[in-house]
Known about the structure:
heterodimer; A: mainly alpha; 5% strand; elongated; disordered N terminus; B: alpha+beta; Methylamine Dehydrogenase, Chain H; 3 domains; five-stranded antiparallel sheet; 8 helices; 17% helix; globular
Amino acid sequence: xxxxxxxxxxxxxxxxxxxxxxxxxxxxxxxxxxxxxxxxxxxxxxxxxxxxxxxxxxxxxxxxxxxxxxxxxxxxxxxxxxxxxxxxxxxxxxxxxxxxxxxxxxxxxxxxxxxxxxxxxxxxxxxxxxxxxxxxxxxxxxxxxxxxxxxxxxxxxxxxxxxxxxxxxxxxxxxxxxxxxxxxxxxxxxxxxxxxxxxxxxxxxxxxxxx
Amino acid sequence: xxxxxxxxxxxxxxxxxxxxxxxxxxxxxxxxxxxxxxxxxxxxxxxxxxxxxxxxxxxxxxxxxxxxxxxxxxxxxxxxxxxxxxxxxxxxxxxxxxxxxxxxxxxxxxxxxxxxxxxxxxxxxxxxxxxxxxxxxxxxxxxxxxxxxxxxxxxxxxxxxxxxxxxxxxxxxxxxxxxxxxxxxxxxxxxxxxxxxxxxxxxxxxxxxxxxxxxxxxxxxxxxxxxxxxxxxxxxxxxxxxxxxxxxxxxxxxxxxxxxxxxxxxxxxxxxxxxxxxxxxxxxxxxxxxxxxxxxxxxxxxxxxxxxxxxxxxxxxxxxxxxxxxxxxxxxxxxxxxxxxxxxxxxxxxxxxxxxxxxxxxxxxxxxxxxxxxxxxxxxxxxxxxxxxxxxxxxxxxxxxxxxxxxxxxxxxxxxxxxxxxxxxxxxxxxxxxxxxxxxxxxxxxxxxxxxxxxxxxxxxxxxxxxxxxxxxxxxxxxxxxxxxxxxxxxxxxxxxxxxxxxxxxxxxxxxxxxxxxxxxxxxxxxxxxxxxxxxxxxxxxxxxxxxxxxxxxxxxxxxxxxxxxxxxxxxxxxxxxxxxxxxxxxxxxxxxxxxxxxxxxxxxxxxxxxxxxxx
Lengths: 211, 616
């Protein structure tokens, strides 16, 4: 019986196709395309407050890395530190945009960052968490802004290692929260931050030894 | 070797981009059909060169919208991983892949490998379940979670049986199968994971502390699972080699031939060239000026003359070496590999491990031993490795930005997110020889960086087909790794030109005459090579005589060409291309092959190969 229904199904499909193959193909494509975007949309509802807090906090955390890195050139950092700083700017700028997109697509308040010199302003969210693990205090930031040349190199590496370790810590804490990271996008982003920053910490520790 | 020197050199690469290296010879190409392709999911505009696309099959409904991942091959089946499970395609007719089985069983990344009647699947994400349920796992500590390796019995490919799991502390981002030529009773799975360590409450023995705090740390090691073929449900972790130990001072690659010439020219022009470790760098003016000023002030020279400048030039090496500073040899290194490519026929593996590329001796499968390591500060994240067929070269890829990022934009440095090429000498030491990056800029909504690929068995040449995510597929000739040439490509426009949506080629592999591309969003593409000035019909036909029973690209097969008239003709085509014989000689060799073919005399292959050997 099963055999026949299968055969019948195939024959039936065959007639459908020859009836108007192009139209059938097009409408199937449209249906699957709609399904693709619908799934992307419905995946957007699967997140927790912990995920939102992580993204919101990490945007500010990354923003401070941008500020720290922006000092490298004017403060006469060595070329090696300047290149490191420009890599951090490239990588973390991109990640800030990804995190803002993640929040935007989920209808969450988006922290917009404004950087003027060493001061970071965040607009668009009520909760300005500025004391996350590894973040520099205002005094430390001023200290870095005031350092030059070799002193800057050393301080930059020390503070950036601390800063990165804070980000790694934030990821590990997020992984410990029930219901967090159920969505592929945040899983990928968080585990990439984890592995990228561990790799960079190791590199910076080696650089520090060379100073 | 002086450690301090090497370390200094490693970071000097960050500091001073060589004035001229082999890579900067490769420039971004803007006038290319791949630029400006229209966006679309299933109807994106396409550009194709020296390839024929036979078909694209879309994922089945349950897999639409979930990420397609790696591929494995067995007989006439293609196994395609997906964050939602596994799709098995029957490619008896490669132009018409038929979905033989879809197995819903979510896990990221669902990297797949096959060996005989076994299928292995990686699970790393937090939502993977032992029961293959689609509801995910919400609790931080759960008995239902799978992070590690799933094992299926595929004796009946159309009806896979889920028989066993091996749970690991960091899950399995990727894995590689090792078939030891000396051991027919077991197969080994090397597991790499990059996510945080799971809590000991969920899997006893797991520890996220550093090895200095906890000798049993789950970090700084890979896991080796031994799978008894007679009883695969007894598969278990048998060793956790710490292949990264003492990895503090990787040698850095030296200058290429092109660089050496360039530096001689730079010196002649009066530029300041410094050697640090094995490499040379031209100092940019903005660094030279303060150094000169500093030097003159130290020497109390107020009105420098040209002889003072010459003295500075003399003193430069010492100044540079002082700048590199002292070193204390503290043990450091990466704590995981992303991918390990095993090449058991030569007893070696290439490990792409965070900040390092490693060469491992795998003659004892349970105890891989690191024999060389390279670092390159142009590399952010060592992702995967591929050997040349003869094992004399290796290429590593740099997955800068993790594959989510658009890292092929006009503004992204060409030396970041590229391939790096190394030769391997008789002492198994690697030497850097050049870079290659997809030469065409991609848009900011296209995730793009170097990714997986495999060798195409063109005899006598090293041809690599490679994924660049939404940068598409690029086929390159790296026979001369100092001068890598693109010989074919396929690319689509972005999934969306409004927002970043993951898509593009995850992995693309040659298997028995066809090129199969796992497209993250669009499904499975099948291609054939088209003859071109870079590849003759005979070379393609000779490649197609290589037939494999199975393929897992991370367990690299040795290609062996059975004697064929196509092979003989391919050799002659290459002699002609490389101008190793006169037109008359070529014509007469071709006539000889035609004659031999009529007499079904395959000994002609040996005679031509002998001729080539005598030329070399």
